[in-house]
Structure formats: C-alpha cells, structure tokens
Amino acid sequence: MEQLLVEFADNASQNEIKIPISLATYVKHLPQEEKGRVTMEVLRYIVFEQAEEIGEDMWIAHREPSEFFDEMIIMVYKDGHAPAHVLEELNRADLPEEVIREQAMEKVKREKEAARLQEKERKLEEFKMKQALQRSIMSTGGGDTSQLNKNKRDRRTIAEIQDDFKRAKHN
Q: What per-residue string of b and e applies to 122-137 under the rule 16 or more CB within 10 Å gives b?
C-alpha cells in the first residue's frame, strides 16, 4: 500500500488514486488469533495515515460507499483535485454536533416554508380561476345562464321512429 502511494506521489499527471481494500486479502495469511484484531476500521486508519504521511498533509483520503461490509474503496486526491461532495463531507465531519443539528433544523424550516408557499400559490391560483369563472358568467348576460342543446333534433329516420312506437305499445 505504501509503495502504491509513493508511486502516486511521484506521478505528477495523476491527481487521484483508487485503493481497493478487501479484509480477506489482508487476514488470509494471519494466524487465527490475530485475525480478529484486524478490522475494516484498522485498515482504513492505516491507509488514511499513509496518505497523510506520504502526502505531507496535502492529500485528502475519502472512503467511498461499498456494497460489502468486508470490502471498501478509498480514494486519495492530491491537493486541489478533490470533488465538491468529498470536500463537503470532510467539512461536515469537522462540524460540532450542535451545528449539524442546527443545519438540519434550518433545512426542515426551509422545506416547511417552501411547502407553505406552494400551498399559498395553489390557493391563489384556485381563487383566480373562480374569479375568472364568475367574470365569464357575468359577461354572458348578467349572471343568467342558459342550457345549451335544450331542443335537440331527433336524427332517427321515420322507419326507426315508427319501430320505436310499435315496440313501446307492445311493452
């Protein structure tokens, strides 16, 4: 692992390195009583310390999400090349618990305020629609409404009408 990071330091064109770590790889040659002492946290600590030492505190090591609990991927970025989400997570970890809770409460407040404004806009739109409907009714005869198609024309043929009368008499 150290050799990998030294090569990374020497390569000026490479700004990030992906270090896959599998717990099984590191404990397979250890005696049974020592296997329990090696955990993912210990391996993570070793990689982070090596990155800090070799990178002279100028590199950022970040654990990426993994599918398996006995495997992990650690990305090491040279100074100025870490993505925004990594920097945000790194800075978030430095914040005290109170500040994190405060930020969460502010987020909840903003979401509630947005929902309240959305509801207010919906009600305003509904009110405008009702007003427009009333104006429309008032402009078509002072509020009187009339039923359309009240006197529809019968489009049946004479033969069909006569057949319907005959059927009605038999019933």
A: eeeeeeeeeeeeeeee
